[in-house]
Amino acid sequence: MELDSELLIQSLVVFIDLVLGLFIGFRLSKGKSKKRNIIWGLSIILAIAPLLSALLSIIIAFIAGDGWTGIAIIVIILPLFFFVGLGRLLTGIFRKNGEKN
User: Fold this and answer.
1) What is the spatial distance between Cα 66 and Cα 88, in angstroms, rounded to a whole number?
2) pLDDT tens profile 30-41
3) Contacts of 28 (CB under 8 A, 6+ apart)
4) What gap in Å lies between CA 28 and CA 17, rounded to an integer?
5) Conformational region of residue 99, where left means phi above 0, alpha means psi within -120 to 50, and beta covers everything else
6) What is the mean pLDDT of residues 32-52?
7) What is the CA radius of gyration of the chain?
8) Distance (Å, rounded) from C-alpha 34 to C-alpha 93?
9) pLDDT tens digit sequence for 55-67
């Protein structure tokens, strides 16, 4: 199978957006220990979950040679990352100020 140039460009754009989302998450949480869980929860929900699931689904769909495989991977991975981010967000909201991990 030959790698389609459009597929390569889509994968590259998603990867760049994912790295940008991670960078923004790191920069926003730097030096803010009290709000770190809230920031990372929102970063996971808004940037990492959709972009990482899209990138993995593009790669796996290309390897399998079937678009439905990519859709199935998104349906499985996106909620998993979403609930991880939601847990992180709720931990940051409801944890008392003096508590540690």
Assistant:
1) 34
2) 887 778 888 889
3) 39, 43
4) 16
5) beta
6) 87
7) 16
8) 10
9) 899 889 888 888 8
